[in-house]
Amino acid sequence: MYKHKKKLVAIFSGFLALLMILSVVAMALNAGAADDISEKNLNSLKTQQKKLANDKKVLQNELSGLKSQERDAMATKTNLENQLSVLDEQISTSEALIASYEQQIAEKEVEIANAQQDEADEFALYKKRVRAMEENSHVSDWAVLLGATSFSDFLARAEVMRDIANYDNELMKSLKEIREGIEALKAGIEEDKAFSEEVKADLESQKEEAKEKEAEVDTLLGELQQKKEYTSEELEKITKEIDACAAEADRVAKELAKRKKYVGGKFIWPLESNFTVTQEYKYRTHQITGKYTLHNGIDIGANTGTPILASNGGTVIVSEFNKAWGEYVQIDHGAGYVTLYAHMSKRLVKVGQEVAQGDVIGKVGSTGYSTGPHLHFTIYENGASVNPRKYFPK
Description:
The chain is an alpha+beta fold. 63% of the residues lie in helices and 16% in strands. The chain contains four helices and twelve strands; from the N terminus they run H-H-H-H-E-E-E-E-E-E-E-E-E-E-E-E. Strands 1, 4, 5, 6, 7, 8, 9, 10, 11 and 12 form a ten-stranded antiparallel sheet that branches. Helix 2 (39-135) packs antiparallel against helix 4 (151-259). The protein is rod-shaped. It starts with a helix and ends in an 8-residue tail after the last strand.
């Protein structure tokens, strides 16, 4: 019985030891999870967010370039289509000309054949007349002349015989000239036809080249479309990643705000002297972008190089340059309070640095979207900007 009881005690002790080990492991895991919510993790998220934004800008530029190439390719395609249309009309015109020339050649061939036939018929009649005269040789030219009853009759008969001979000669000459003229016209038409066929062949060659170019442009358009779709998909992915990163950064920032106590005290004016406020916290038309947006802070006019003071103590969470704010710094004061100092000519603090109220954190400048030297000063409460006049009444 004693041994059995002793065994139960040992088992129970072992169970308690196991529970203690599990508790230590759980605490380590919780500590690890807590480590995720840190200034370092928040800065890492912001760095990642910035990198993603740069990647997104590269993709947007690439997409813009692809769209520009696509517009150029479409313009080229339209131009080629117009060329093909004109070439088709020119080829049709050439074909009509060739057909006309062929018809004219056929007509001239008929005319040549008819002229040759007329020439042959006349020559046959001439030969028949000469043969008849030979067969009736007793009727010679002299017989005809000597048969004249008078001298005037003799002259008349001689003139008639001369006219008959001249007629035969002129007729044969005329028929020959007509035939040669028709053959010359036919040759000219055949030359025109040959030229038109050359023109048509050249036009068809141009048409084939234009078709090949059009096919190349179609291929390019297809490739550009695929690249556009891929780039658009990548943009969509990276936009989602940016949103997710921003959401995680907000979550970490809010969690940090809950954990970190407010440093205490009142905010002080961020410049050593009470310079004039040149722009209040309000909606306005931006002097550079032209957009009507909320000016989420106050602009304090000051000379370049004027020292900028930490409005309260805290931890520097941002110290960098961007296009809008120029050189700027953000300080976390705990409990969700953050201040921003923008358009500096020089930053004098680094991320993670602890600063006390009144420490010089930078110099006044005109970097970023700025039209002159000044300090842009914003106060945030739990991630939302508030009017600094809440803390610095007029």
